[in-house]
Write a structure and sequence with these properties.
Blueprint lengths: L17 H9 L3 H21 L17 E4 L8 H10 L5 E4 H6 L32 H4 L3 E3 L9 E3 L14 H19 L18 H11 L7 H8 L7 H22 L13
Antiparallel strand pairs: 1-2, 3-4
Length: 277
């Protein structure tokens, strides 16, 4: 982690993407760190005992000894082949996730969990939607991805975390809303997140304050336990750092930084919606 006293250690934040900002706060989350360590320990132990987990595990017709998770959920005593056939019959895509991929979903991450020690790792968050919205034709493309192969072109699948539903405004709306609600609940049930996600807070943050919030959080967690006055003198040398002003200035910013670390990091993915001065 960077040293909060050194301006140069935070220079990289000047070019951070929204995903990069989300990661900077998430990597400081103690629960994420704990989850990462437990997942890595489990994976290492299983690889030592059973060997590396096979690639394309959802395509296998028999179970493997590694810890995996099925989407939709596999019924007790249901074989993998029966599960696949049931998914096809119910028009659902069978997915098998590694344990790391399964726990990553808790943090709205796709595929894997980067090490908290990594700076600007390759990572993918599930799309952070803005709720129901009216789409144009061009908007629709963001909710589908191309899975075309050499033998078949123009094949698209809907992104996993969203549902695109069409309403006929010439027909009664209430029955359509009921059907839409049923579709959405079914989709959420199929995703089966392992742990409830705390969601996105309502607080808004000025983009320009993010570097300062990050440094104040790091300072607050410094093992040397600097006082609010010491933090303020270093980060706000040109401002009034009297006792009350320091307490108010540093404490309020630390509380907001902690919110971003603990639950609101996904707000960074909606940079255009964060208030700007």
């Amino acid at each position: 982690m960077p040293d909060w006293r050194k301006d140069g250690d935070y220079a990289f934040t000047e070019n951070l993407s929204p995903e990069g900002w989300a990661w900077e706060f998430l990597r400081r989350n103690p629960e994420y760190n704990s989850n990462y360590e437990s997942v890595k320990t489990l994976v290492a132990n299983e690889e030592k005992e059973f060997g590396p987990i096979p690639a394309g595990i959802w395509r296998l017709n028999k179970d493997i000894p590694h810890t995996v998770h099925f989407i939709p959920e596999k019924k007790p005593n249901e074989s993998r082949m029966k599960w696949i056939h049931r998914c096809i019959a119910e028009d659902k895509e069978p997915r098998v996730l590694t344990h790391e991929g399964w726990i990553a979903r808790k943090w709205r991450l796709k595929f894997w969990m980067p090490s908290p020690e990594e700076n600007e790792p390759e990572l993918y968050f599930f799309k952070q939607g803005r709720g129901a919205e009216l789409l144009s034709w061009d908007d629709c493309s963001q909710y589908f991805y191309d899975v075309s192969g050499e033998e078949e072109q123009g094949v698209y699948e809907q992104v996993e975390e969203s549902v695109v539903i069409v309403f006929d405004v010439m027909q009664a709306i209430t029955p359509q809303l009921k059907q839409a609600n049923k579709i959405i609940k079914g989709k959420k049930n199929d995703l089966k997140l392992p742990l409830s996600f705390k969601g996105q807070g309502k607080n808004k943050t000025d983009i320009k304050t993010l570097p300062t919030l990050l440094r104040i959080y790091d300072a607050w967690k410094d093992k040397l336990k600097p006082s609010p006055s010491e933090i303020a003198d270093h980060l706000f040398p040109q401002e009034d750092n009297s006792l009350y002003a320091v307490s108010d200035k540093v404490t309020k910013r630390y509380k907001r930084a902690k919110q971003l670390v603990m639950k609101d990091y996904l707000q960074c993915l909606l940079m255009s919606d964060i208030q700007k001065k």
